Amino acid sequence: MPGGRLTQQERQQIALGLADGLAYAEIARRVDRPTSTITREVMRNGGPTAYRADLAHRATERRAHRRRQAAPRAAEAPPQAHGRDAEAVREYEEVFTTVLMASGMTTMPARVMACLTLTDTGSLTASELVQRLQVSPASISKAVAFLDSQGFVRRERDERRRERYIVDDDIWYQSMMASARSTAQIVEIARQGVGVLGPGTPVAARLENIARFLDFVSESLARAAEQAREILRTKVERP
Fold this sequence. Notes:
Oligomer: single chain
Number of strands: 3
């Protein structure tokens, strides 16, 4: 199996595979690379619908150039717990981040979310995030504010009165419920529009259809989140 960076020809094969609707595993088999390599390559370069081989190749060259410039100043990577491969962890965190970005997060919230999720403790302080991500405190503050507003993280004070940002097993439930509440607000405003624009008009009919659809989705999402939470909690408690 070849090693090293992807070549421009391999990137062209990836683009052709995506255009043909092939799965990442099949593309990986055709270029004789690990599936994780293909997934990371596609997700960090626009996702399956926007991937372009030439743009991806140039972007990789720019990233490599920046790394070479930053290498003398970069701190030595901390040793990994449980005997983990530091390079494999770094690459996985990068993939995790790009997948979060593809789901709609902007870069810094995605980086913070990935960093928190992939710690054994599930919590870090602002200064620890600054050190790990090598960004400014202001960038961390803005990212955490967004994640907090979406229910992705919660805040606690530790014994030293430092604010810690936490990702635990209940965070995704809280995020789903926040999404359901946000959708319910759209339902409410759509139904208000029916009265404003006149029942029986084409635009009112459109708004009513929007309200019905989103109302069903938000209720289903909230119900599914509640059920999943109870089932998983019961399985954990049973042993």
